[in-house]
Amino acid sequence: MDLLQYSFTLDPDQPMQAIRERVAAKRDLVCTLPGLRWKAWLISEPLRGRPQPKTYAPLYLFEDTPSIHSFLCGPIYKGVTDAFGWTRPHQGYAITPGETEMSTTRSCALTVSTLNDHETLRVALEEAGRAVALPAGSGIKNAFLGTFAQLDIARMQLRTYAFWACEPEALSQLRSDLIYEVVDVSFPRESP
Q: What top-level branch of life does the organism fall under (predicted)?
């Protein structure tokens, strides 16, 4: 399985409600994409004590690379880039495609590890499947749902996505590069 994520940095004055409304209007468009396992509609914005950019950054889990290529060459991705501009997606093999209960997810913490040599690659791959380090006394232990790790060979990065059943604010002290709100999750359905 392969993960695909693209991201658009939004204007700091952009009302995020407009993005939430776009998600509500477009969420069913992806439900018949060949090879799609799920799409998590992610956004980020500044959190209490955490200066984050405003972004729109959907994440997809596809069965295989040809399904991703078909999506990137198709009308849905063209519509996204027409609306937000061109972007360079992160794409790579899903190293830990666990059975995360995506329907209950409310937030996602992204951690990016740059792979500089064989040792950093080895360590990153070992750590990809381990539990996420929780801040002491956070009270969010039971909210952890699971992780997916993506080896992005083009950028030599390991991107680890940890999913949670709590609101993003509860993760503001978590050691990660970015905390996303999961606005919605789309799952495939049979074509009519």
A: Bacteria
List, in order, residues 6 or more apart from 140 with CB less than 8 Å away: 134, 164, 166, 170, 171
pLDDT tens digits for range 144-185: 788 888 888 888 888 989 899 989 988 888 888 999 999 999
CB-based contacts of 79, cutoff 8 Å, min separation 6: none
> Angle CA(61)–CA(64)–CA(66) in degrees, nearest 5?
120
Tell me which residue of 40, 44, 46 sits closest to 55, measured CA to CA: 44
- Please check whether residue 118 is in contact with residue 129, taking contact to mean a CB–CB distance below 8 angstroms: no
pTM of the predicted structure, to 2 decimals? 0.88
Q: What is the 3-state secondary structure (H, E, C) of 145-176?
A: EEEEEEEECCCCEEEEEEEECCCHHHHCCCCC
**Tens digits of residue pLDDT in 106-119:** 999 999 989 999 89
